[in-house]
Amino acid sequence: MHLCTGSLAAAAMVWTAHQPPFSSVRDTLPPRYVESSTGLETPRWDGGRSMLKLADLNLDGHPDLVTVGDHGSPFVNTDMHGITVWFGNGAGQWQPYQDGNFGYGGVAVGDVNNDGLPDVGWGVHHNYGSGGYGDRVMGVALGDGTGRNWTPWDQGLGVDGQSWGMFGTEFADINVDGLLDIASVSFGCCDGFHAYLNNGNGTWTRSFGFLGGNSNMDITAGDVNNDGYPDFAVAHQNGTIYLGDGQGGFTLGDENLPGGGNLGRKGVALGDVNGDAFDDLSLVNSAGGVEVYLQAPGSSQWVLWSDGLPTSGSWQATRLADMNGDGWTDLVAFGDKRLAVWLFDGDRTWTGAATFTLPGPGDYSSMVVGDATHNGRPDIAIVADEGSIFSSRNKLHFFRETTLPRALRIRISGPPRYRTIREGAVFFIDWRCAIPGNVASEVKLELSEAGRFGPWITLGEHLPNNGRYQAIVNVTQYNADAYIRATVTTATGSAVDVAGPFSILP
Predict the structure, then answer these.
(1) Which residues are CB-neighbours of 17 under 8 A, at least 6 positions away?
(2) Pairwise CA distance, residues 274 & 505, whole Å
(3) 62-100 pLDDT tens trace
(4) Could you tell me which of 330, 370, 329 has the C-alpha nearest to residue 354?
(5) pLDDT tens for residues 105-121?
(6) Could you tell me which of 123, 210, 331, 378 has the fewest CB atoms within 10 Å of its CB?
(7) Rounded Cα gap, residues 442 and 459, in angstroms
(8) 207 to each of 196, 199, 248, 388, 500, how far by Cα in Å?
């Protein structure tokens, strides 16, 4: 199969029936959730916005929850401080651990020095740390594979006029050199949006940035134009879509999106909805409704793709993910103590599938989706305030998706098929496994440069079954017919999934 990555390919795929963006086992049962928050009662939160990530920090195969806290971090009417991790056991139970004297902001997880161990980056308002660890508004620290010990690795970050504080933070290989870089958006007013390149030695160089403007504090990384160069969706007054040039620079790609007002567009998220490999955008509109936008074929214009979604309301945040395992990207939204899931049918229409309500007042702080319990479907973690309207505090809840696995299976959920991958750049392979009995398992990942039948090159084996692997592909030939094969193995059997094609370009 030949793949073209230009606008004509978009024209061919956006408006016609095609395959879902991810491989699929065609599981169509609606998602159902039960709270599973044992261990999340401590440390105590305060209030305001925060940011959660779900990642396996101690490499035991079970994703953990990580944050740098809300307004109470560090030690402001709470005992929350620094990097807070809740270690998951794969069954919806958690054990907290904290380190550092800073906080209140956004967090990112990835391997910034390519030693195979998870590292953490952040943008914060309370830079109360010392000795290079949390004493500036942006930071990075190297992990040792335990999720408990962190070494500062952040010279040059957050020293370009940022004085008020940073917030939403993401890692991505912005200049496609095989090293994860970092980007962060301001905490509210004034500090703008900034991207820093990783020099590979603990120093960072700003490649793009500006000061000023207001922010809704959200940021997410993706590839909007499928050129293999990371882009960002940013909730900032100056614009939302920042298209990367592969060298560290960015240009705005908002085109005809509705205006974002004086705080920027709210609740932004990226994901490939219609299977054309170009990331699409979800957001909360000015009336509090939920909208999804796709780019029109052959142009940079955005097209509303929201049949069945609420046009108004009190929604505050969105996420795009396949919530029922059918291969299509679905939509999750939260606001005013209510969470809802809409399933996408592959042909423009969204159908409500699940909803539940948290205690009030229910103002949004943070949300993350991902499979932490090994049933092959995403779970949901939410931070929102609870209590009386004048004395409420944030609280973290984890909702486990309850579908019981009937057979061992694995499904590659990222990158989406037809996605462009740049040779020598960092990219992430994501998968979900359904493990009957939640028994011990491991994963092997392989790449074929020449079609879905191989030959296969091993990317990693005996990997913890935690749903994500950070890869760098060095190929012998550039082609548009690359495939990824994932194999999960337990003591009693194995299962395989093959996803693609992908285009590997220089």
Answers:
(1) 346, 347
(2) 23
(3) 999 999 999 999 999 999 999 999 999 999 999 999 999
(4) 330
(5) 999 999 999 999 999 99
(6) 210
(7) 14
(8) 6, 12, 5, 45, 32
